[in-house]
Structures are given as C-alpha cells and as structure tokens.
Design brief:
Blueprint lengths: L1 H25 L1 E6 L4 E3 L14 E6 L3 E6 L5 E3 L7 E2 L12 E3 L8 E8 L5 E15 L8 E9 L6 E6 L2 E2 L9 E5 L6 E9 L2 E9 L4 E3 L5 E6 L4 E3 L2 E2 L5 E8 L32 E3 L8 E9 L2 E18 L5 E8 L7 E9 L5 E8 L2 E5 L7 E9 L2 E10 L3 H4 L5 H66 L1
This protein binds 2-acetamido-2-deoxy-beta-D-glucopyranose (2 copies).
The site of one 2-acetamido-2-deoxy-beta-D-glucopyranose has 3 residues, from loops.
C-alpha cells in the first residue's frame, strides 16, 4: 500500500516534472493591446513536421477547446471567442499553425495550448497571452480633478517590468507599485500615454490619449502668443467643447486689472467690435492692430461646469526694423521680437506675384538679419521673417519694400499712359495749328504789302499827271 503510494507520488512527480520541462521549453509570451489582433505562434521548425492533414487543437487552460480541426478538415469552435479566432489554412503546409485572435479583449488573456498530431511527431506549444490596456480614470477629467493613468495587464506576466512614455518621450515621473500614475489633471498631462511591458525577449506597447477638459487654447500654462506689430492678433481663450462657460474675465497683468470683457475699458488700439465669438466656448479676444505696448502678460479666466479655470499667457510682439545704408541703395532688415527666448531660428522669404498674379515665395536667407539691395526691382515687394521654435513655426512678420517709381514706368497701367499720350498729342496739334496760323498771318501780311504797291503807283502816277497838267497850263499862261 505504502509502496504503491510512493510509486504513485513518484509517478506524479515525474509527470509534473515533464510538464514543467515541456512548458519551460515551449512557453511563448505574447503581449497585445486590447482591441488589436493577437497571433499566438505555433510553428514546427523541425524536419519531420506534420502534414497539412494533421489534427490541430488549440485549447485554453481551464477553459477547454478554443478551436479544433480534424484530419477530415472539419473545424470546430468551442469557446466564447467563437468567430474571433481562426487559423490561416495556407500556412499549415509550412508547419505554421498559429492562432489569430481578432479584437482581443481583456478576458482573452491566459495560457493557450497548441497540439498538432500527425502520427509520430506531435507538436506541443504553450503560449501565454497578456492583454494590456491603459486605463484612464476618469476617462476625460476636468482641469484640476484627480486623474489616474494605469497599465492593466491580464494576466500579470511574471517578472515583467513596466515603464511609461509620454508623448513619445520616456516618463520619469512617479508611479506607484501598481504602475499607476495619479496626478491633478492639467493641460500638461494631455497627450499620448504609452505603457511598455518588457519580459526577456517580449515587449508590449499600449498607448492611450488623455484629454483634459478645460481651456484648450492656449493649450498650456505660460504659453507664448506671437503677433506682428500693426496687424490683427487673436488672444486665445477657448474652452473645451460642451462645457457650460460663464463669468469670463480678461485681465492684462502688466497693467491694472481690467473688468470683464463685456465692459470697457481696453487699450484704445484694440478693435472691440470684432471680438471673436465662435460659439459659447470661444472667448478669444481680437486685437485690431497690435502695437508694441500691447506686449505683455494676459490672463483669461472663467467658470466651466462649476470649475474655475484660468490661463495665463504672454503676448510677444514682432516687428521688422530697417536700417538704410549711407549709399541708400541697400537696407538691413532685422527681425525683432519683444521676447525671443523660445526662438531657435529665423528664415526670410520673399513674396512676389508671378505673371499669372499668383503669390509665390522663395526662401532666401536663414538668420535674424537680412541685407538687400533696394535699388533692384527684383527685391521690391514683401519680405517675411518667419521665426521658429523647437516645435516648428511660431509666427511671422512682413516688411514691404516700396516699389521704386522710375522702375514702374513701363509696368504702369494703360489708363494714365494713354492720357499722357493724349495730352502730348493735343499739345502737338496746338503747336502745329499755331504754326499754321502764324504762317497764314505772314502770308497775309505779304499779300497786303503786294496790294499796297499798285496803289502807290497810282498815287505817283496821278501826281505826275497833275504836275504835267499844271506845267501845261503854265506854258499856256506864258503863251498868252
Ligand atoms: C502660370 O503660368 C505658367 C506659364 O507662364 C503656367 O505654366 C502655369 O500653369 C500658370 N499657373 C496658373 C495657376 O495659371
Ligand atoms: C504669416 O502668418 C499668417 C498667420 O499664421 C499666415 O496666414 C501667413 O500665411 C503667414 N505668412 C507667411 C509668408 O508665412
């Protein structure tokens, strides 16, 4: 009796050892994000693999058959997973009996066994599937509320390590023993949270986007808003869609307290009539024409769903300063910002209209200063300075080089030049007319002179006749 028991124990022990040994050899870990597809590998790599006509059985420990294929080719689904699992038949010939699971759910996590039987060389594999989810609680917190970001693994893989990434960068902040991060919700926490689970050769990455409701624009505290001097600018204050917003107050922190923006006063340069009101959540202010003095700190605050929310930001003004050289033919343009701490680079682009009248731009220079020859017609038009920060373009400011008048003569519109021609033509005509009149007068004068001479002749002639007569009469007198 005792001997038998011992023998039984020994047998049991031996079988257990065998099973553990087999598991240690064959067990594969698979980490998968909930909702995605899982492939549980079961591949025969040895030479004498079963034929495609083999019997294949996929089962889940403690839950029985998941999927089965008989020698005849008949398939059976024996689990809740039902039609979410399949084995691509085309792979069997290559000794690949991997199980595919679509739309993996937390409950799918666990240990799966693959058994392929075909006479002499059976295949046995154990695959441990861990389904990972990033849990946000609450799913969309309000600014100021507590939020917990957790990495849920089902089942928990033995000896695995968990780390976090936030917006693509390793997160070094504190998380508790269960890999849960608890924080006061703020815009700084908005973005993609990725949980990375590692175990020996296996790695699983699962991401989830955290949305914090509150003020969505400016997207973060202490943001910078850039505005070109002389142009319109928007002071942003946009609440999350769907919030009930009330009691919005705008304050300029540089100057004295400003009352709620429904009432005055604001700097006189601000164009109050065009205040942005794109729905009840957008409480942005539009400044009609930004002046250098408008630069400074601003705060927008309001009540949203019973929470008092505020956002402070900096308005930074940008302008182009020009310095003309003594020769007057070239100018140095400098891109000046009231605060350039976030600026990492400047780019100058030249805006021109091509023959079709479409605006085209060409990048010409990298740097804060730009020297250009103003006498060259090609340089006339708008010069835009774009300034960049670590995350891309921050803003731009444009300077216009006036078009030089003598160069524009031929490009001027038809109207004025035809007028000029007309004036010239009329003048010429008048001149010709004057000349003609002058000529006519001269001619007339000459004619008058010619007519005068015969008259004189007559007078001379008559005088001579008179004298003759008188002489004759005198002779007569003498004769008598
Ligand atoms: C502008 O003109 C060029 C030729 O001068 C032509 O190839 C191009 O298609 C035109 N573009 C447009 C937008 O009309
Ligand atoms: C300058 O910025 C404004 C506003 O962002 C944009 O509409 C415009 O296209 C920019 N101009 C240039 C030349 O980059």
């Amino acid at each position: 009796m005792t001997e038998l028991t011992t023998w039984n124990y020994l047998m049991l022990f031996g079988i257990t050892l065998l099973v553990i040994g087999a598991q240690c050899e064959e067990k594969t870990e698979v980490f998968v994000a909930a909702g995605s597809q899982a492939v549980l590998p079961c591949v025969c790599t040895s030479s004498g693999c079963p034929s495609s006509a083999a019997t294949i059985l996929w089962s889940k420990s403690n839950e029985g058959t998941v999927w089965r294929k008989q020698k005849s080719g008949l398939e059976y689904w024996g689990h809740d997973l039902m039609k979410r699992v399949y084995c691509p038949h085309g792979n069997f010939a290559r000794g690949d009996y991997s199980l595919h699971i679509e739309q993996v759910q937390t409950e799918d996590g666990g240990e799966y066994i693959c058994q392929v039987k075909d006479g002499m060389q059976p295949v046995n594999k154990v695959v441990s599937l861990t389904v990972i989810t990033v849990q946000l609680s609450p799913p969309a917190p309000m600014e100021g509320d507590n939020v917990s970001i957790g990495c849920n693994m089902q089942p928990l893989p033995m000896g695995a390590t968990v780390s976090w990434m936030f917006n693509g960068k390793p997160w070094t902040g504190h998380s508790d023993a269960d890999n849960v991060i608890v924080r006061k919700a703020s815009p700084n926490l908005m973005g993609e949270w990725t949980c990375i689970v590692r175990n020996r050769r296996t790695e699983g990455k699962v991401g989830q986007t955290l949305i914090v409701r509150g003020i969505v624009e400016p997207a973060r505290e202490e943001a910078s808003v850039y505005a070109a001097v002389g142009s319109e600018a928007t002071l942003p204050c946009v609440f999350s869609h769907g919030l009930t917003v009330s009691n919005v107050i705008w304050e300029s922190l540089k100057e004295s307290f400003l009352p709620p923006f429904h009432s005055l006063p604001f700097p006189p340069t601000w164009n109050l009539t065009s205040m942005s009101y794109h729905g009840p959540w957008d409480r942005s202010l539009i400044v009609g024409e930004v002046s250098v003095e408008d630069g400074g700190r601003y705060r927008c605050s309001g009540m949203a769903d019973g929470h008092k929310l505020t956002r402070e930001f900096k308005l930074i003004t940008a302008q182009v300063h020009s310095k003309t050289f003594s020769s007057g033919a070239s100018v140095i343009l400098t891109c000046d910002l009231s605060d350039d701490t976030e600026v990492t680079g400047y780019e100058w682009v030249h805006l021109t209209y091509d023959f079709n009248g479409t605006l085209s731009e060409s990048s010409v220079h990298q740097g804060k200063d730009l020297r250009i020859n103003t006498a060259a017609e090609i340089n006339s038009g708008g010069w835009t300075c774009r300034f960049y920060g670590d995350h891309g373009i921050l803003g731009n400011v444009t300077y216009s080089i006036p078009v030089i008048s003598h160069l524009t003569g031929d490009s001027e519109t038809v109207g004025p030049s035809s007028n000029t021609a007309m004036v010239f033509g009329l003048g010429f005509l008048l001149l010709v007319l004057l000349l003609i009149v002058g000529q006519m007068y001269t001619n007339y004068q000459r004619k008058k002179r010619i007519l005068l001479y015969p008259a004189l002749e007559t007078i001379v002639h008559s005088n001579a006749n008179e004298r003759e007569e008188r002489e004759r009469n005198r002779m007569k007198d003498i004769d008598i």
